[in-house]
Fold this protein.
Amino acid sequence: MASLGQRYLRLVLLSALPGMPMFISNAAVRAAGNTRTPMLVTGSMNVINVVASLALAFGWGPLPALGLYGVAWGTLAARTAGCS
């Protein structure tokens, strides 16, 4: 069980690399007085995270069923999409 958690945590921590610029840019935009744009970015990231995590965890369509690792890859995809 610990190796499962270790592998999951590695993937989620890898998503911190694209996630940090997104957090900083969202904070800068909010500080400038625009609170709507960061909210929309975060909302779209949440939708991407839920859909990608479920699709990769359970193997929807042509995607392989990755279980817990699919959830981690979905989080990585959502944070990367939020950074762009």
The chain is about 80% helix and 0% strand. The first helix runs from residue 2 to 14. Residues 2 and 16 are 21 Å apart (CA to CA).
